[in-house]
Design a protein that fits this description.
The protein contains ten helices and no strands. By secondary structure, it is mostly helical. Helix 3 runs antiparallel to helix 4. It is elongated, with a radius of gyration of 21 Å. The protein starts with 7 loop residues before the first helix and ends with a helix.
């Protein structure tokens, strides 16, 4: 049974959880639209030129990746504090899954740094032809793409468990928690299916894998930030009053 009262530590953790949920989305959007979607293009040579001409932006993007990791760590610990009274083991499992997801972003940062090194290191410039360097650099960038989809199931699983605990606890409206369960499970399913069957991306556009979950976490973030946690008995009182 969910706890009958919300303690002070949960209340204190709810708003940092909300802030980090929102901040994480903002970081990813800024990173993608300011650098990734703008300068990483299908043409290998053009992408390489972009990386050389806009090296500072790409290094700033690496900083965004590291900032995203810090945000995810803070988010994970805050949500653990919120959900631990509901089920400690499941809350710990969700935190572990989210930290695994965060760790993959370190690999993404390393891949980007490696791609840049290939294009500006004198030893590589002497050892390889220009076309080879461009191809190797693009391989590093595409490895980052692969790393994201390897990480994505862990994000989906973490959010599925968190949403289940939120549904059980009634700390947020159950309809919102149910949407979280569905969208997170969908994300995990799509990511795992895409890894096993790459053609799945032609059936369901890869952009739809994580969009519902992103929307849920934005709403959840604002809910926790503005409203915090509501005692489990509120839902019952609202129903009785109606």
């Amino acid at each position: 049974m969910p706890t009958s009262a919300i303690d002070e530590s949960q209340c204190r953790a709810a708003r940092p959880a909300g802030v980090t949920l929102i901040l994480a989305i903002v970081i990813v959007v800024v990173s993608n639209y300011s650098v990734n979607f703008r300068y990483i293009v299908p043409d290998i040579a053009e992408t390489a030129r972009n990386m050389v001409e806009h090296a500072t932006l790409f290094r700033l993007n690496i900083f965004f990746n590291l900032l995203y990791i810090v945000t995810l760590v803070l988010m994970s610990t805050s949500l653990y504090v919120v959900l631990k009274p509901v089920n400690k083991n499941l809350a710990l499992t969700a935190m572990f899954f989210r930290l695994l997801y965060a760790g993959m972003w370190g690999i993404i940062a390393l891949n980007t740094l490696g791609a840049m090194r290939l294009l500006d290191d004198a030893d590589f410039l002497r050892a390889f032809e220009t076309g080879q360097l461009h191809a190797l650099s693009q391989l590093h960038l595409r490895s980052s793409w692969d790393a994201y989809y390897v990480a994505l199931p862990f994000w989906g699983l973490a959010s599925t468990v968190c949403s289940m605990l939120l549904f059980k606890s009634k700390y947020i409206p159950r309809a919102l928690a149910a949407f979280g369960i569905a969208s997170a499970a969908w994300c995990a399913f799509c990511a795992l299916t895409y890894i096993i069957f790459p053609d799945y991306g032609k059936i369901v556009h890869i952009g739809f894998f994580d969009v519902p979950l992103t929307l849920f976490e934005i709403v959840l973030g604002f809910w926790l930030l503005l409203k915090g946690l509501r005692p489990p008995g509120i839902a019952g009182l609202d129903k009785a009053a109606a």
